[in-house]
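User: I've been going back and forth on whether these two constructs are worth ordering. Before I decide, could you fold them both?

Assistant: Sure. I'll take them in the order you sent them. The first construct and its structure tokens:
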Amino acid sequence: MAKELPYFRFTPQEWQNGDISLESYAMKGLFVDVCSYYWVQDCVVTKKMLVKKFRNARKNLQELIELGILKHDDSTDEVVILYLNKQYDLLSKSRIDKQEAGRIGG
């Protein structure tokens, strides 16, 4: 998906009013970096992947998880960013619908 749509929606109002708005600039910067990495990975990452990728920010990464800004499932190690998953699901459905329409038209 990241190659087909190399960007995700960013809503300034949600950014300014969301839980992340109360955090330090370092935490906000890490969150944006994590969001970008998450999107490029088609919204499938584990905590292990994030710890390796952002090894110089392990403490802040753990804090984002503890604050619930990043959702972490201990049993699967999967990390989820809900608002990006919603976008990904909508875009994936749209892409599948267009592919099916193309097959019917072709």
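The second construct, handled the same way:
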Amino acid sequence: MKNLKIAIQKSGRLNEKSVQLLKNCGLDFENYKSSLITTVANFNLEILFLRDDDIPGYVEQGIADLGIVGENVIDETASKVNYLQRLGFGKCTLKLAVPRDSAIKEIKDLNGKSIATSYPVILKSFLEEYKISADIQTISGSVEIAPGLGLSDAICDIVSTGGTLKSNGLKPFADVRSSEAILIGRDGLQDNEILNELLQRIQSVL
């Protein structure tokens, strides 16, 4: 039987929980930090370690059959993948935040302002919904320093605890969307024996 390939985050906040979930499913594999692929010794599965931004695209193109990735990444990349199972970890919220002394108090106050984010697709769609015209500055990396450097009036970023916002003198004032880790699959995987077995194991662990 042909092995299925599952893509998980190589490093970052979902890596540890994804590895733990698969181990709890009884899968025997080495979590190589240096290697991009590892084979499960006791199951027809290979694990690819990728950047989280790349996972939905790999699954959409069929390079990987399955993936574990945050909902926010799926939305941002607009990849056509199937949601197979919500996994209940990696919960966070994409929030709008402003400096503590900012005059911006509600969403409508963002009209004509500039917002720094690593999620321009999600943010654009959110602003359109509220009929807000703002300048979106796309930044990869430390978005929370943008207002302090004078690059933007506000930011839109992933928040889990809020500690990073606080330490940068920012306060959240609106939620854009909530997110958690999702098991996704490529098209044409329905009624796959290995997938069904893996899903049963995941559901019993959850």
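Notes on the second construct follow. The mean pLDDT is 95. DSSP finds six helices and eleven strands in the chain.
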